[in-house]
Amino acid sequence: MTSQSVMFKGGLPADCTCPICEQALRDPIKLNCDHHYCRQCFENENRTPGCAACQTIIQPELCQHDRAKQKQILALPVVCTFESSGCPWDGQLGTLHDHLSECTFKSSLKCEKCGRQFAKNDLEKHRAKCELNRAVCSFCNKTIRDSDRERHPKTCPQVIISCPFQCGLTDRPRLEIEAHCPSCPNVDNVCPFVPYGCTFAGGKESIQQHLSDEPVRHLMYLCDEITDLKGTYELMERDMGSFNDRQTRILSAAETCTEMFGPQLIWKIDKLQQRTNEAKSGADTTIFSVPFMSHRFGYKMMACACLFGDGSSAGKSISLYVLLLKGEFDPTLEWPFHRAIKISLLDQNPRPEDRVNITYVIDPRKLKANEKFLARPRGERNAAFGSQSFCSLAILQNYVKDDKIYVQIDVDRCETLPVQLKSRDAKERKQMLDAMRAKTPDVRLHQVRPVTSQSSSAELRV
């Protein structure tokens, strides 16, 4: 049973968590450094030779199954996997399997109207009184909730009623009666509490006497009206709460979609002139973006910029780079990093159809020489890689508006397929680049050269 199907009370203790899969230890193996792996993670052929927690070299002959740790894990307090469906059970992890085999909430079903989960035996009872049950008004044909059946006829514009001032106009839709009331000849000859249920009619003197004789009855009319208003308010409050919940879910889903399918970072660099002057003077040559994720549960990254240029490009071009940070999900990811990255300088032209972005494409390769850039970070961050000569400072001015520029980072969400490199003569290379430029005129294509101990590349930066 994986920790994904288990809900631990108070959370999963760190000493019971596998540093590789970050789940509860299953069949724990104690390493020679006293840390623990799941047996499956320990026996994985692709695991690193060093301990994921302390980097100590693992000596398999000194590793063994830890029965005491297994006993500790089975004693951890958990709740039923179907707690969200209403199951109140809690107990130890070792007894969870037996409980699930007989849990009545295991076969819980969802109400097709409100979406809430119920045990199979309780679903029919809920359906009968679900607050989202609907009915059709026989007067106006409007769809209303079951809970509004008593309240709706009091306001329905098509309900058949008579004039409350007892002028003889009867059996008319409420809409027609309401239009008639202001001009009704008896409007001044009835009790002012007629709209609330009183039926008294007479002259002005008799109406005054009527109000004096029966104050309690009229007070009860008002109390009934206030009770109706209170019920309406509670219904509106409940509807607002439901609306807020739905809005939160929709916004959360929209945010998730943005994380999954939108650019990973759009970096606004403001106060550009001031920052460029600081870079020029050497006070602050490099600025950094906020950290961002390549995808959900993916690589943690950061962008950086040298606004006055870096190295041989100083004073000539802006330099843009990305770098890998030490992330929470690094143990579950594939290393070295090999996702294609696009760095784009966004055109701020108010006419979208006239915008031409400058884009630099990075296609990392699984080369050991690039370990300090693309390997799993051992420290807080790796060295940066990208474009030392992204675009000239003169061209950059065409992309500045209100002393701001925008840099967009796109990281492929799928793995970059291995590419076999082969040498091409100058003519063949030119033909290939011309064809690719014709297809994507706003993309600048660069050949990413590997770094070796004998040579350095302008596209990689320590």
TrEMBL record:
InterPro entries: MATH/TRAF_dom, TNF_rcpt-assoc_TRAF_met, TRAF-like, TRAF1-6_MATH_dom, Znf_C3HC4_RING-type, Znf_RING, Znf_RING/FYVE/PHD, Znf_TRAF. GO terms for molecular function: signaling adaptor activity; zinc ion binding. SMART domains: MATH, RING. The keyword Cytoplasm applies. Keywords: Cytoplasm, Metal-binding, Receptor, Repeat, Zinc, Zinc-finger. A zinc finger (TRAF-type) spans 152-208. GO terms for biological process: cell surface receptor signaling pathway; defense response to Gram-negative bacterium; innate immune response; regulation of apoptotic process; regulation of canonical NF-kappaB signal transduction. Pfam families: TRAF-mep_MATH (PF21355), zf-C3HC4 (PF00097), zf-TRAF (PF02176). One of its GO terms (cellular component) is cytoplasm. Gene3D superfamilies: Apoptosis, Tumor Necrosis Factor Receptor Associated Protein 2, Chain A, Zinc/RING finger domain, C3HC4 (zinc finger). It comes from the Eukaryota. Residues 262-411 form the MATH domain. Residues 152-208 form the TRAF-type domain. Residues 18-55 form the RING-type domain. The keyword Hydrolase does not apply. CDD domains: MATH_TRAF_C. It is found in: Cytoplasm. This is TNF Receptor Associated Factor (TRAF) homolog.
